[in-house]
Amino acid sequence: MRFFRAAIGLGFGLALATACQGAPTREISLVVEVVDENGVPQTVALDDGARTVITNEHGKASLAVAQPTVIVASGEGVLAEPFVVGWGDDGTTLRVQVWSNLSGTRWSLHATGDVMFGRRYNFPPEGEPLIPTSDIAGGSLDVIAAIRRMYVAASVRATNLETVVSNLPAGNIYPGKRFILNSLPETLAALAALEVDAVSLANNHARDYLDEGVLETVQHLDAAGLPWFGGSYDASLGDAPLYVETAGITIGFLAWTTVDGDFVNDSYPTDKAETPTNLDPDEAWQYDARSWGYAGKTFTAATAPRRIGSAWRLFRDAEATMSEVDVAASWASLMAVYPELQDWVARRGHGGATGWSDARLQKITETKAVADVVVAQFHAGFQFQPAPSSAVRRNAHAAIDAGADIVICHHPHVLQGAEWYKDKLIIYSLGNFIFDQDFLSTYSSGILRTVWDGGELLQARFLPSEIVGYKPRPVSDLAARTTIRRLAEMSLMSAESERGDDGGIRVWRADPLPGTAQASLEFVRNSAIIGKSLPTPTTRQVSLNPGTTVALPRQGLRLARLLAANVDVGRELFHWGHFEDEFADALETWGAHWALTAGRKFVELNGEAVAGFGYLRLYRNSRSSAVVTARPVARVPLYQHRLYENSNDQAVPLDPDATYTMRAVARRSGSGEPAFRLDLYLFDDTNPTEDPTSEAIGQRTLEVDIPGDGEWHQVEVEVPPSTFVAGNKYANMVMLYVTLGVPDIGESRFDIDEMTLVEWRPADAMPALYGVYDYVRNRGGTKVEVDISELP
């Protein structure tokens, strides 16, 4: 705190996550009671990473930890069980169920989404690299340090390695590919420390350095003792399953991707396409005609100048009738002239990821004849979308029909919902596990934990985590509940994502398919049990005075449709305005997902925060010359509409137009003017042949009018609808700022807690779906009583 005071005395402006000075040391004290699935007390070891406590004959032990912590319960005759203790467990008796394993036939599987250790890990836009070239292995081990104990607490562990692993130079990358991922071989020390038993290569980045990159990847995996499947450097090696044995049973792992590159080739311009007048010089090559031809026994193309799109279509339209020899030879000749043609799977005479086709169903059946359990993985769907595509659902169901016991999907880089099909579990996307993407939606993550007895699935749990500073961290309390609630909402959506003729992707209402059952998520010990039956709804009665907003408890799901005029339901779009340390990472992680202009965060405790311990402080004096600002590390996505249906071949939104407010609890002292600022952007990623664009289309400053009395006040500031529109462009992303102007004299302070951007929609026009709605407001002039249906 000395530096803080000195800095202010020198006239600096600071933004910091704080809870100020003078509080007693905090501690989470609780009793843990451990029982088996039959309620029988268990004597086990409770390991928090620093010490071990043994439960007594009643299965109980007292624990005291300084912050949220991963605990692993283990002992003779039981399966190891990881769980997170959070602030909400202080002063409670936490009942933990472990699974008995006296028979020795029970086992557990941990599975994750996408993993890589390159790009920003090595070359961050600012600051020091997390994985420096001077200590690559050590850096990678530090990246996974917080998540390791939770992840390894299973019998078998699987992940999707979405990167080449090589020392190849940049000159070897796949020409024309938009995003290239490569991780240095020494980073496999992290996968070895995570004790991964099954590494999938079935993804659209396995061939980023062509066949040489695939070969180096599998060679480095072999050298590190990491079993792999779902890809090969040689197309002739096929899609052989990986078999893993545990608890006397055999597990067969299979993986495929539908993201094969063909959709990129389909987007290339043909000879008939007009050359755009504002063509980016870096994209001009797509409109150049190059001479190509081929003569074979089953395929002939006359030698002539063609654009890449026309040459591709000649090959594509004839491929099904070609011999295997002509497919490989004509593709090789085509690639010699058009090396930018994309093909990311093992076929056409080259290696890569294992691509999916219906013919692969037979491989599932064959694997099931050998294995007790078949785990099928799909790398498929649309990136950053909340719902799976219809093709992913169809393929997942077909895989189960062919013999798969569980289907695990990835590629969207965000979490998607769960579904039961014929009593078999499907997870449509596990998002990122270890990745460097910087969209807010890509930070929420988790581990799928399943417990089995032989070939019977006993329980499925989701263990939430969050990628903070590009490191995965187990989460507790509100952070855990927020991720689980969104996963629960997505599991109940009955929706599918599809690309339209304009290249944009929308989420469409979909009818339940035969044999399917919606998955429910029950919040238990900062995780969620994935169930087959939905809880019974309850009713919450809320009185709304004219012009008032009511904040509801952040738990469960609520029915969006309310049959009351002039009533809106509100959804938080930004979930990190409470500044708490809810990460079980043995670190002080306050103000997660915030970029603070001073580059410093001060966290000291005296209970001054509105809720919890942390809040944001902007502090400055009249000798400062610039406005002090603080902002999140990434933009918040906006959705003009969240759900559509098809009516006469037209996309009709099922939800009404949205309005927005900035909401927070704030206090102010001094004459510096506080404000919120919104910077608006139009992000476009519809053309797979071009890099995405991000256009700034506007900015809006919203004054925060509160007394300068140093007391906390509820703040709600309307965002004018015109803020989000510029001509015919509608912002789909917004960067939020908190600012404090220069005081006339002396010092000024602006403290913020519970800050969020709220999306409002008229409740009587909403679809009758349950979702994460935590606010209701009355726009009318008379008092309203509303009954809100809730799922716990």
Structural summary, described in words:
The protein has 11 helices and 54 strands. The strands form 13 sheets. Strands 9, 10, 13, 14, 25, 26, 27, 28, 32 and 33 form a 10-stranded mixed β-sheet that branches. The model is unreliable at 1-13, 19-24 and 598-605 (pLDDT under 50).
Q: Span between N and C termini?
A: 43 Å
Tally of individual helices: 11
Portion in strands: 35-45%
Rg? 27 Å
Q: Profile the largest sheet.
A: 10 strands, mixed
**Shape call:** globular
Protein structure class: mainly beta
Spans of at least 5 consecutive residues with low confidence: 1-13, 19-24, 598-605
User: What's the mean pLDDT score?
Assistant: 93
Number of strands: 54
Helix content: 10-25%
Relevant terms:
792 residues; mainly beta; ten-stranded mixed sheet; eight-stranded antiparallel sheet; 11 helices; disordered N terminus
Task: Summarize the helices and strands and which ones pair or pack.
Elements (H helix, E strand, L loop, with lengths): L1 H8 L4 E5 L9 E8 L9 E3 L4 E3 L5 E6 L3 E6 L6 E5 L7 E5 L8 E10 L20 H8 L1 H8 L3 E6 L2 E2 L16 E2 L4 H6 L4 E3 L9 H14 L4 E2 L1 E2 L9 E5 L2 E9 L4 H5 L23 E6 L4 E7 L1 H11 L5 H14 L14 E2 L7 H8 L4 E7 L10 H13 L3 E5 L7 E4 L2 E4 L4 E3 L9 E10 L2 E13 L2 E4 L2 H15 L3 E5 L5 E5 L6 E3 L1 E5 L2 E5 L6 E7 L4 E3 L5 E3 L7 E6 L21 E3 L18 E7 L6 E5 L3 E2 L6 E4 L2 E4 L5 E11 L4 E11 L8 E11 L9 E7 L5 E2 L2 E2 L2 E8 L6 E16 L7 E2 L3 E4 L5 E8 L1
Parallel strand pairs: 2-8, 9-10, 9-25, 10-13, 11-12, 13-14, 17-21, 21-22, 22-24
Antiparallel strand pairs: 1-39, 2-5, 3-4, 3-6, 6-7, 9-26, 15-20, 16-17, 18-19, 23-24, 23-31, 26-27, 27-28, 27-33, 29-30, 32-33, 34-54, 35-53, 36-52, 36-54, 37-51, 37-53, 38-40, 39-51, 40-50, 41-50, 42-43, 44-47, 44-51, 45-46, 45-50, 48-49
